[in-house]
């Protein structure tokens, strides 16, 4: 995921905060959005969607953001942070109003989508204005003055070192591999040198992961701009042109579109395979093993799309499993959403954002924390409600779970207000102490939420 994101943002010349609130936000927010859309499709699980969106919001703005500050303390850009915090507080307020009236109308659903579009336009325009202002300042400065490296709101001046992506052992003389050898090596998910060095528990875990890793290798193309060949594997990339579209049509809406038969004879997945095979033959005949083609960036977009489709399929199954757990253990949809579903959906945010921070891009990762949850809240609720309105009447009912929902909404709002006040008070420097405070806050919130779910804290306690 991270190499594809880096390739896309580099090719499109996106600033780090723009990449964070668009592509990285979409990738991180895909589990939450797809889960919300699936949950909103059934009125009985609408509370699951609200709990997941609020729970993921608190988790990302505390655990993930605090983890970034602990891993790599840095000074965040002031205007992007304040902008993202304000937009997210507005999104939370809209959801708070919807919960209060226990319904979402067509106008409110459209306002969610419209607010996110306005947010993205604000990010793009403000970044363009900032770049223009910097160019004017550089042009007006004296040419004799040395140009010092600056860390602007566009992102860190540091870049990927590329050391993590290089082979540990490289031959003194380059060896030309045959097409069959390239295909065999690129389809092997196991590094034998690493296997010999790792302990037994790592090997056991690796054995369970190998089938999934092999499946992802065969279906998800990866473009890595930090490698000399950009991870161009000619035979495998040609195979991706067949497997990746098939995954997209078979995972979309549980394969309903993929198994649809054209003229009641030929299935859609068959047409996709034939089209992909034709493209694969064309690419194979017009490229070489040693050099990636000019259109290699298209594989990054394809890999991004296929990853989202895999997440969609997983999210559908996760929602079904959580509904079963809720019935078995008699847990409310809200507590399932803010715990298991929120944690599961936020795994992508946690690993990708912390990886970005360790690789020298803490600002992009921190922007993705807020950009991702803004995307989750606005697009998740807006799109989920709109899709339900196409099947039912133009009003979506929201059945809240009483005190727990208000604790959830209040905790999210309080965490945003805390960051909105604490970060400027620290001159926008995110230290390890700030990160520890966020993690402690989340643990305290989780304790109160679970005590409320198990009836230790009740409304009568406060009356």
Structure notes:
- Helix 5 packs parallel to helix 14 and helix 10 packs parallel to helix 12 (297-329).
- The termini are far apart.
- With 463 residues, this protein is mainly alpha-helical.
- The protein has helices at 2-11, 16-21, 23-40, 46-71, 78-101, 106-140, 179-186, 192-197, 200-219, 234-251, 268-286, 297-329, 333-358, 362-389, 403-425, 432-453, 459-462, and strands at residues 74-75, 103-105, 261-262, 266-267, 395-397, 429-430.
- A hairpin with a 3-residue loop joins strand 3 and strand 4.
- The strands form three sheets. A two-stranded antiparallel ribbon has the order 1-6. A two-stranded antiparallel ribbon has the order 2-5. A two-stranded antiparallel sheet has the order 3-4.
- The chain is built from 17 helices and six strands.
- The longest helix has 35 residues, at 106-140.
- The chain folds into two domains: 1-135 and 152-161 and 308-463, NCX, central ion-binding region (A middle domain of Talin 1, Up-down Bundle), CATH 1.20.1420; 188-218, no CATH class.
- Residues 1-124, 300-450 form the Sodium/calcium exchanger membrane region domain.
- It is found in: Membrane.
- InterPro entries: CaCA_antiporter (IPR051359), NaCa_Exmemb (IPR004837), NCX_ion-bd_dom_sf (IPR044880).
Which key terms come to mind for this protein?
463 residues, A middle domain of Talin 1, mainly alpha
Overall pLDDT metric: 78
Domain count: the total is 2
Strand residue content: under 5%
What's the CATH architecture of the largest domain? Answer: Up-down Bundle
- C-alpha-based Rg, rounded: 24 Å
Q: How many E strands?
A: 6
List the total number of helices.
17
Order of strands, widest sheet: 1-6
Which structural class matches the secondary elements? mainly alpha
CATH superfamily annotation of the largest domain: NCX, central ion-binding region
Report the top-level CATH class of the largest domain.
Answer: Mainly Alpha
What is the CATH T-level topology of the largest domain? Answer: A middle domain of Talin 1
Note poorly predicted spans. 144-173
**End-to-end Cα distance:** 50 Å
Query: What string gives the helices and strands in order?
Result: HHHHEHEHHHHHEEHHHHEHEHH
Principal-axes shape call: globular
Summarize the amount of helix as a percent range: over 70%
**Largest sheet geometry:** 2 strands, antiparallel
InterPro entries: CaCA_antiporter (IPR051359), NaCa_Exmemb (IPR004837), NCX_ion-bd_dom_sf (IPR044880)
Pfam families: Na_Ca_ex
Membrane topology: Multi-pass membrane protein
Main location: membrane
């Amino acid at each position: 995921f991270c190499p594809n994101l880096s390739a896309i943002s580099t090719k499109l010349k996106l600033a780090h905060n723009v990449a964070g609130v668009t592509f990285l936000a979409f990738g991180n927010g895909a589990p939450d959005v797809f889960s919300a859309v699936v949950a909103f499709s059934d009125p009985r699980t609408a509370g699951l969607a609200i709990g997941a969106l609020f729970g993921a919001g608190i988790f990302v703005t505390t655990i993930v953001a605090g983890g970034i500050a602990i891993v790599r303390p840095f000074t965040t850009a002031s205007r992007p942070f304040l902008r993202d915090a304000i937009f997210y507080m507005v999104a939370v307020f809209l959801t708070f109003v919807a919960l209060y009236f226990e319904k979402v109308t067509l106008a409110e659903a459209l306002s969610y989508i419209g607010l996110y579009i306005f947010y993205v336009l604000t990010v793009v325009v403000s970044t363009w204005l900032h770049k223009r202002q910097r160019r004017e300042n550089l042009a007006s400065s004296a040419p004799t003055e040395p140009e010092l490296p600056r860390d602007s709101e566009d992102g860190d001046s540091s870049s990927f070192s590329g050391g993590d992506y290089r082979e540990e052992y490289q031959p003194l003389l380059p060896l030309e591999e045959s097409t069959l050898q390239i295909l065999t090596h690129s389809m092997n998910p196991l590094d034998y040198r690493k296997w010999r060095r790792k302990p037994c528990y790592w090997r056991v875990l690796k054995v369970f992961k190998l089938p999934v890793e092999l499946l992802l290798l065969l279906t998800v193309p990866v473009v890595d701009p930090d490698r000399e060949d950009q991870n161009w594997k000619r035979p495998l990339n040609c195979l991706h042109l067949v497997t990746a579209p098939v995954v997209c049509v078979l995972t979309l809406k549980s394969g309903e579109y993929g198994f649809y038969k054209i003229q009641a004879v030929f299935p859609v997945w068959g047409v996709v395979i034939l089209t992909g095979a034709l493209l694969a033959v064309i690419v194979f005949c017009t490229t070489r093993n040693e050099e990636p083609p000019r259109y290699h960036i298209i594989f990054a977009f394809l890999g991004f799309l296929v990853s989202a489709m895999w997440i969609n399929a997983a999210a559908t199954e996760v929602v079904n499993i959580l509904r079963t757990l809720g019935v078995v253990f008699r847990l409310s949809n809200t507590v399932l959403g803010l715990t298991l579903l929120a944690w599961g959906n936020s795994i992508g945010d946690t690993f990708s954002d912390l990886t970005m921070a360790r690789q020298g891009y803490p600002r992009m990762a921190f922007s993705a924390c807020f950009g991702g949850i803004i995307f989750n809240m606005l697009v998740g609720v807006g799109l989920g409600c709109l899709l339900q309105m196409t099947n039912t009447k133009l009003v979506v009912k929201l059945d809240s779970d009483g005190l727990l929902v208000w604790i959830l909404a209040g905790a999210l709002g309080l965490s945003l207000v805390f960051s909105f006040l604490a970060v400027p008070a620290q001159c926008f420097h995110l230290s390890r102490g700030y990160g520890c405070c966020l993690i402690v806050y989340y643990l305290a919130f989780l304790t109160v939420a679970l005590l409320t779910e198990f009836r230790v804290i009740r409304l009568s306690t406060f009356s």
